[in-house]
Write a structure and sequence with these properties.
By secondary structure, this protein is α+β, with helices and mostly antiparallel strands. It has one domain. It is 25% helix and 11% strand. It has two helices and two strands, in the order ββαα. A two-stranded antiparallel sheet has the order 1-2. A hairpin with a 2-residue loop joins β1 and β2. The radius of gyration is 22 Å and the shape is elongated. It starts with 9 loop residues before the first strand and ends with a helix.
Length: 76
């Protein structure tokens, strides 16, 4: 049987890194500030943020074409 697992996003806190424990998980486990917890660290597969996806989308038209269409729709 696998244990329920929570996931979080690693964020910079000063010169350290930290993970916020979701509120639902703290309520389910009765975790409060000052409690000691066991953490198993396993990176999840996939892009870490949208920067990893930059340049991967292929557009049918240029950005200028989209801007021109928007202006036409607004009546500019």
């Amino acid at each position: 049987m696998t244990k329920p697992m929570a996931t979080g996003v690693v964020r910079r806190w000063g010169r350290s890194l930290g993970v916020v424990i979701p509120k639902e998980e703290t309520l389910r486990k009765g975790i409060r500030e000052g409690h000691r917890v066991r953490i198993v660290v396993d990176p999840l597969p996939g892009p870490d943020d949208f920067a990893d996806l930059f340049g991967t989308a292929k557009w049918k038209r240029s950005a200028q074409d989209y801007k021109d269409e928007l202006r036409r729709m607004r009546g500019d």
